[in-house]
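Task: sequence design from structure.
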């Protein structure tokens, strides 16, 4: 977040193509009302939302494919099982916009990036290349069994590994369906591959895979965490131009995955630069410069002044008749739980904040520090959501339900989508929305009701927030009504 200082730091008005996600989704009945399954708090991408086992099935068939240079160990067996599963899926679902004819990837290669004698693949030296990749020209897929795949399994679970393989196989799908060529921007290739991974993993989560299971709660959350982890680093526009191979922010990657998970392969094939630019809208993408000409840090220190600026901003966005007060100490509440680091008390119309805890949550950290991703907006999005509860109370809406949780996430997105309009005391900076969706996945408080109860699926919490970024309060009330 940037505090306003003389001139506006940037603009934010997002035009997400949420309608694209609606295709193929039916409706369900919630408290006597028809609700799109996409917005149903008991579902994730149209599937029932629940925790449960995720990983290889105990009765899964042994891998049929083999990899060159394999050590025959468990890492390669997991990778090969994933490839078998992906090839079964795509061989059975090659239709619609996928032209050409499906055929399995011609060659698979396993290697250890720590081994200086590892073989070359597609003319590339793989020593110290900790990665997984698909080589278009030679129709080869390769992975590092020494560090990269075990690391993915350690932090994101075995289905995180399957997600990695699904993304790389998405590049093979592009090639075989003639969707991309050498001149196609890297961002388009990566967004399509993220989307294709989502299409496949929906099939797994629906219980159709003979090799893997994926719960739509904790299991899918881990897959989404992996997508956040592989986001692009924050750069200035000049640095991005020099690099020339943008893969996408966390919000970019999650949104493309959600298009696939909630839709079909036709929608993935339709992703091009025009679609991506429309979906990104005017979100700040690059680091700005400070007064010394150096890249500016996007995170602000969370203190009383910043929170006062936030409250002023939110008052302008929501225009409540009775704005809630801000109390920088946690206090007991007679009609709601006092959840740290921020809680709304309806009885007193007050947002109570545990300032030290909020400051800790808003301190920039990354995976190297044992945290998925956090920064000032991980914390400020939670405070924003508590203000959104006050706005709902003023409308006479009940504040204790899973629907409330998603409506709150949506209203939080609305506020953040307007935080860079002229005159705003606070403006979003590059990476702020990534911090928000990381928080929605890890603690979920920005998508919780007045007692801190969240919707089960991180997938749906993020989807609700994204819907708000592109919409207005009335759309949130319409989509999340009960």
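Answer:
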């Amino acid at each position: 977040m940037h505090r306003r200082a003389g001139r506006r730091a940037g603009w934010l008005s997002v035009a997400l193509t949420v309608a694209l996600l609606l295709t193929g989704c039916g409706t369900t009945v919630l408290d006597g009302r028809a609700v799109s399954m996409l917005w149903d708090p008991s579902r994730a991408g149209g599937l029932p939302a629940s925790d449960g086992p995720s990983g290889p099935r105990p009765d899964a068939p042994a891998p049929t494919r083999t990899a060159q240079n394999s050590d025959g160990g468990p890492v390669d067996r997991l990778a090969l099982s994933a490839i078998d599963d992906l090839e079964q899926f795509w061989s059975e679902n090659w239709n619609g916009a996928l032209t050409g004819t499906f055929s399995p990837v011609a060659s698979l290669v396993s290697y250890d990036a720590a081994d200086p004698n590892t073989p070359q693949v597609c003319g590339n030296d793989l020593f110290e290349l900790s990665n997984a990749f698909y080589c278009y020209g030679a129709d080869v897929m390769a992975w590092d069994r020494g560090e990269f795949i075990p690391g993915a399994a350690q932090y994101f679970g075995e289905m995180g590994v399957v997600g990695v393989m699904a993304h790389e196989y998405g590049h093979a799908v592009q090639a075989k369906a003639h969707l991309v060529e050498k001149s196609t921007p890297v961002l388009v290739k990566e967004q399509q591959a993220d989307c294709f991974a989502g299409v496949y993993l929906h099939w797994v989560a629906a219980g159709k895979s003979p090799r893997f299971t994926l719960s739509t709660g904790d299991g899918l959350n881990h897959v989404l965490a992996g997508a956040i982890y592989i986001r692009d680093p924050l750069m200035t526009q000049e640095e991005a131009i020099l690099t020339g191979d943008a893969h996408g922010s966390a919000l970019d990657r999650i949104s493309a995955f959600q298009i696939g998970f909630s839709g079909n392969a036709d929608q993935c094939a339709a992703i091009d630069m025009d679609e991506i630019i429309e979906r990104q809208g005017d979100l700040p993408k690059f680091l700005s410069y400070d007064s010394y000409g150096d890249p500016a840090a996007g995170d602000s220190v969370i203190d009383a002044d910043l929170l006062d600026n936030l409250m002023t901003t939110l008052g302008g966005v929501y225009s409540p008749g009775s704005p809630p007060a801000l109390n920088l100490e946690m206090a007991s509440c007679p009609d709601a739980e006092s959840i740290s680091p921020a809680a709304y008390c309806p009885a007193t119309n007050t947002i109570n904040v545990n300032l030290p805890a909020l400051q800790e949550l808003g301190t920039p950290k990354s995976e190297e520090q044992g945290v998925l991703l956090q920064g000032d907006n991980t914390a400020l999005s939670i405070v924003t959501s508590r203000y959104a509860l006050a706005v709902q109370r003023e409308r006479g809406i009940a504040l204790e339900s899973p629907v409330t949780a998603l409506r709150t996430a949506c209203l939080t997105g609305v506020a953040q989508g307007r935080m860079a309009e002229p005159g705003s005391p606070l403006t979003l900076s590059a990476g702020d929305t990534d911090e928000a969706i990381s928080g929605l996945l890890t603690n979920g408080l920005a998508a919780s009701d007045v007692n801190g109860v969240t919707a089960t699926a991180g997938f749906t919490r993020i989807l609700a927030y994204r819907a708000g970024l592109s919409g207005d309060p009335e759309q949130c009330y319409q989509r999340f009504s009960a």
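The chain is about 40% helix and 10% strand.
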